[in-house]
Amino acid sequence: xxxxxxxxxxxxxxxxxxxxxxxxxxxxxxxxxxxxxxxxxxxxxxxxxxxxxxxxxxxxxxxxxxxxxxxxxxxxxxxxxxxxxxxxxxxxxxxxxxxxxxxxxxxxxxxxxxxxxxxxxxxxxxxxxxxxxxxxxxxxxxxxxxxxxxxxxxxxxxxxxxxxxxxxxxxxxxxxxxxxxxxxxxxxxxxxxxxxxxxxxxxxxxxxxxxxxxxxxxxxxxxxxxxxxxxxxxxxxxxxxxxxxxxxxxxxxxxxxxxxxxxxxxxxxxxxxxxxxxxxxxxxxxxxxxxxxxxxxxxxxxxxxxxxxxxxxxxxxxxxxxxxxxxxxxxxxxxxxxxxxxxxxxxxxxxxxxxxxxxxxxxxxxxxxxxxxxxxxxx
Length: 379
Known about the structure:
Elements: H1 14-21, H2 26-50, H3 69-77, H4 80-97, H5 99-107, H6 118-148, E1 150-155, E2 158-163, H7 166-190, H8 207-223, H9 227-238, H10 244-278, H11 288-331, H12 333-338, H13 347-363
């Protein structure tokens, strides 16, 4: 993944910083602490008894009489109820710090699991090439025709650019428009929402990865904007109040992935314990039939909840993508103002501005700067 995934979506750990600034942060409480507390309770009340350990008496307080306040405080702190606060808190902080890693796992780009997703990645790349390969080629031809006045011709497996007259350019442009229009109509008849990015290099193995990739691709498709370059600069212009919606959707996405991750772990744990007890590696006082039934039911429920959490995270990712698209559509001109440039009236010229400005920012050479679009506004 490139573009936004390296600038916005990798900032999943920002929730930890928010929590450190405000320990009562509701996002941390709902998306990390409470799921961690539920995970600990499942260990204590389900896995423990299956293995022969009695359920802890965490809600019983045995406070002796005639003791001072200090003794009472130490007695409370030494109880099991305190462990159910400290342990979930430690797990929650740890998981929130790893939220970026969890996101990469679900995107299928985490190094340790990347090989497992290769068949899915290959399938999605083949689908994208089959669906959008002709569109990608036509778009490129149109861009070169309108911005450089040349026609791309493929002869003997080699591509070359041919200069065209104004009349030929206009005629070729109308033909390319009609061909691109027909391709779009075919896409829209088959699916109302794009599931895969057009650029094969952006395609991921999972629905989550492709949902984020489609959002990442949007500014480049519409305006020629390199999202990885311009998103941090757009954020600086939007201000914190306009970014609140994106931040909330992003926290919800990562929180749902955290819930999915914990329940998947619990489901896998139940299956492993069931296999171990069935093989006789673990001996407990509970009856084997009852033990296996509980473990299998818990494993199925854990996997179902994990799948539901993942699907909900994909919907939250769609909300993040919608907010990002709106930000680029409405406010991209603010970036040009900071570079003393004006927004062209022609969309094809605007693409040239963004492509040149991105090259200037990335490479630093002065000749990339689109000085022909310098604004006359001196404010």
